[in-house]
Amino acid sequence: MASAARPEEGAPLGPPPRLARALEETGAEGTGRTWLEDLPGLARDALRRWELTPERVQEPGGRSSLLVLVRGADGGRAALKLVAPGTDAAAQRAALAHWDGFGAVRLLEADDAAGALLLERLHGEVSLSSLPEAKALLETAGTVRRLWTEPGGGYPYPSVADRTARAAELLRTAAHEPSAADARPLAEQALAARAELTATEPERLLLHGRFREGKVLAGERTPWLAVGPDPLVGERAYDLALPVRDRLEDLVAAPGGAATARRRLGRLADSLEVDRDRLRGWTVFRAVADGLPALARGHRRGALLLEFAGWL
Fold first, then answer.
1. Which of 10, 17, 45, 99 could form a disulfide with 104 if both were Cys (CB 3.0 to 4.6 A apart)?
2. Given a cut of 50, is residue 45 above it in pLDDT?
3. Could you tell me the CATH superfamily of domain 17-121?
4. Which InterPro entries match (predicted)?
5. Could you read off the pLDDT of 84-121 as tens digits, one per residue?
């Protein structure tokens, strides 16, 4: 990823364009706009509180947070993350503290009220997406396996059923849009799959929630570490749904993309001892739940996700 210019002392630490666009697309215009306006001050407050010196704002950055590369009072390198409204900073903090650097970026400091996390510095420009596909798939399985742990008592995470209830509601709404007429049978299939999958609960493990190749970055103390969790509790198949569709554009463009996608699903399921049918169901649901609303907003990726779901 390219990086922004180093800010001068006292200069505003404004959000990258990608973050501003993402908040607008998700409809968080009121609270999101206020947060964006307050963001430079929030960043400066955290820098002062933890005695940090900013180096640069990471660009293009994420879609729900600002990441500032910093140095501590001792000269050590770190990354300051400020999460947008609607993102549960307390749950992220709890999950990262629970993993304690095992398979995930290490948490150094946290302020739940400010939505601020101080994290170890990783190589943000190098993710599993930079590896050949076969190697990336192997490292994907090895990394996510480390994160699947017992959540402990009194955890603050929602269940898979709770998390997907809102997505199912949005999918039903999107399916009634005129532009979704051709996709309604697929939407009904996805909703039926979710209903069947949430009727049983085969396991309750701590999951990353948004795991994919781009969320696994190169580190120094260990080769690969996961970042950006949206933690929840449930079955492992839910967490594998996004890795199945990694490199989506390449899959859709390549001859035999459907067969390749099905083989990828089978390889991930077998390597991590996950039920293939449950993984297929969650992969279809998450692809359609992401794809149909995106299609309604005119995003090309929406059509790609629906085509991918149809293959499975």
1. 99
2. yes
3. Phosphorylase Kinase; domain 1 (3.30.200.20)
4. Kinase-like_dom_sf (IPR011009), NH2Glyco/OHUrea_AB-resist_kin (IPR006748)
5. 887 888 999 999 999 999 999 999 999 998 999 999 99
The alpha helices in 155-299, defined as continuous H runs, are 160-175, 184-198, 236-244, 248-253, 257-271, 276-296
Which tokens is 216 given? 């696994």
Fold that domain 128-311 belongs to in CATH: Aminoglycoside 3'-phosphotransferase; Chain: A, domain 2 (3.90.1200)
Q: Which helix (H) or strand (E) holds 71?
A: strand 65-71
